[in-house]
TrEMBL record:
Compositional bias segments (type: Polar residues): 175-189
Every HNH nuclease domain range: 106-159
Protein name: CRISPR-associated endonuclease Cas9
Xref: InterPro entries: HNH_5 (IPR029471), HNH_nuc (IPR003615), NA-targeting_endonuclease (IPR052892)
Length: 205
């Protein structure tokens, strides 16, 4: 086993299409399946340049690093019975031509991610089981279920607000709710230094 390393199979990997446009974030397990089937290649980013590597080349580099004990601080690894392999940060799908979808899914998880698990009334962060969703303009008064009218709220603030508007309840929103320009999951990774190499392939970064 690699000392201090987790299996890494659930680490995140950015998948690019054939034209190097970011498509989606996938698990390391899925990425390795695509690499093993020769449906994808690794994109290794070093400073401002990058190189393409097939699965065999990436495995060889990983084995050299492992033999030298060269484990980067933010790298994830997978340890098999006979070898260790580093989880790539980025892969490129060799025959996938579709462009990424611009639509951001409107769902509970993405709202929590957009609002960073922070109650938009009291400003405090909470674990998921202590959070709920609130209609800024109450649903009973015609308020829509949309990005612009739903916010993350702690249970206490939700009860306090009840079926009133924030103004009526004497409460103030931390920020005006709006639809994210990109997937909150993608943005969460971009905000981490661990995935800084993704920025070169994501429009607007």
């Amino acid at each position: 086993m690699i000392a201090g390393r987790t299996t890494g199979l659930h680490a995140s990997v950015l998948a690019l299409n054939r034209h190097y446009a970011a498509v989606q974030v996938i698990s390391a397990k899925r990425a390795f399946c695509l690499l093993a089937k020769e449906l994808a290649e690794v994109i290794s980013v070093e400073e401002r340049s990058y190189q393409s590597l097939d699965f065999g080349q990436w495995l060889e580099i990983s084995q050299i690093k492992a033999s030298l004990g060269d484990y980067e601080e933010d790298a994830d690894w997978v340890q098999s019975v006979s070898f260790a392999i580093q989880v790539p940060k980025i892969i490129r799908l060799l025959s996938y031509d579709r462009m990424p979808r611009n639509a951001v899914k409107f769902n509970r998880r993405n709202i929590f991610l957009r609002d960073e698990n922070r109650c938009q009334y009291c400003g405090k962060k909470f674990s998921l089981h202590k959070l709920s969703l609130d209609h800024v303009m109450p649903k009973s008064r015609g308020g829509p279920t949309s990005w612009e009218n739903i916010v993350c709220s702690c249970l206490d603030c939700n009860v306090r607000k009840g079926g009133r508007t924030p103004h009526e309840a004497g409460m103030k929103l931390m920020s005006t709710p709006s639809k994210p320009s990109r997937s909150p999951t993608m943005q969460q990774h971009l905000d981490s230094s661990k995935y800084r190499s993704w920025k070169a392939f994501i429009h607007g970064e």
